[in-house]
Amino acid sequence: xxxxxxxxxxxxxxxxxxxxxxxxxxxxxxxxxxxxxxxxxxxxxxxxxxxxxxxxxxxxxxxxxxxxxxxxxxxxxxxxxxxxxxxxxxxxxxxxxxxxxxxxxxxxxxxxxxxxxxxxxxxxxxxxxxxxxxxxxxxxxxxxxxxxxxxxxxxxxxxxxxxxxxxxxxxxxxxxxxxxxxxxxxxxxxxxxxxxxxxxxxxxxxxxxxxxxxxxxxxxxxxxxxxxxxxxxxxxxxxxxxxxxxxxxxxxxxxxxxxxxxxxxxxxxxxxxxxxxxxxxxxxxxxxxxxxxxxxxxxxxxxxxxxxxxxxxxxxxxxxxxxxxxxxxxxxxxxxxxxxxxxxxxxxxxxxxxxxxxxxxxxxxxxxxxxxxxxxxxxxxxxxxxxxxxxxxxxxxxxxxxxxxxxxxxxxxxxxxxxxxxxxxxxxxxxxxxxxxxxxxxxxxxxxxxxxxxxxxxxxxxxxxxxxxxxxxxxxxxxxxxxxxxxxxxxxxxxxxxxxxxxxxxxxxxxxxxxxxxxxxxxxxxxxxxxxxxxxxxxxxxxx
Length: 544
Fold this sequence. Notes:
By secondary structure, the protein is α+β, with helices and mostly antiparallel strands. It has helices at about 135-140, 230-240, 250-265, 290-300, 305-315, 340-345, 360-375, 380-400, 445-465, 465-485, 515-520, and strands at about 20-25, 30-35, 45-50, 50-55, 55-60, 65, 65-70, 80-85, 95-105, 110-115, 120-130, 150-155, 160-165, 170-175, 180-185, 185-195, 200-210, 215, 265-270, 270-280, 335-340, 355, 440-445, 490, 495, 500, 505.
């Protein structure tokens, strides 16, 4: 599941504006102010496994809020918040700098450094207010958090623990601190005296808890950061990246930024450390999404084929097994999204995986075929080919709902996504006059994906000398292409229909979806000058 994964990559990005800072590692992320504080009643917090385990994290010195000066960050999962205390009475400027060195990853570590710039010893009381509401990620994102019963905070075994119990299960967080910290429910306090021109240091460690068991954080107070897995993966990513030289400074910076951003979206399976998946986006969508992960890893094949292989292996491991209307799971279907929060679990039919997507399944087969063209070892193909065959079986049995040769979608319950293509808003599929299309809906680009999936399977069969199977899938592709160009083409408009609706009427809106049809090669050449799909070379093409 995504909750136990980690990633490495780019410098931290701001989220929501210049006064907030976001640190991300896998499904763990922290959004705070530029001073490092997490403000209650704001879309901030430390999130672990799609749950907010810290909803309040406020550091004061002598009862006063710290003034932010700057934030430094070289990694996506760490930052240094540089702040200062208010000037002492009778002084024009502050002599106390407070640095908060934060690392996130399956928890959080924060090193506090108080530097006395003055000529005499400085006494100070630091207070860290700690709160946790254990709200679901989407409750926070959408501003609909409600007060929860069953919350408690207490000190036990040298740590401050906060818990929430619900339906026989518990989520919790444990905060421990060095530097002579005094703990009380919701509060960590230090009374310090810092000699002139010297520094006082303490470390605070935050660990998530599930049913009373602490989850090991990736950054601990008793180890250096260079020893952590994320640090090592970050170095490997940067060292293995291609070097591009160009006299155009803007292009150089864009390429470097893109490389760092891509690295930040990588997530890793803890059971298979070398298996990498591309997440959908930081911070709210650091999870495996079938369509997003497949398409992104396809587009970066020239950079790293391992991303595509890891994505295929991960999606294969969660491929549909049974028919479940609530999660929309069906045998052979490739998932839409994986989540771990309680609210997400409810939205996903009571589980952690939701399968309501029409395009991920053919894209799975397409990517496997494309990866083979990039040199994927036959043994890897052999391991994934049964999953591709199950995906094709889903296309024929469940995807083509009415047996007309086209793949349609219609959600199984009112919980599911109304539209299940890459445009999935509630008004995503409409006629040119604005009327909504009624399901079941056959999207134009999905037919292109299926066409290319058929050709990819034909190629695999030819590689092993199975000409009968190759001919079967090549015929399926040719038949689909002929039917598509007959039913979807709008000669009076000069473009393809966005979709066919439940009554098989062409949805005549002009959209970018038809560009995907060009990419897949399902478009007849007389309708698109020079159109060339990914399976036409070197494997040949199908015609009417």
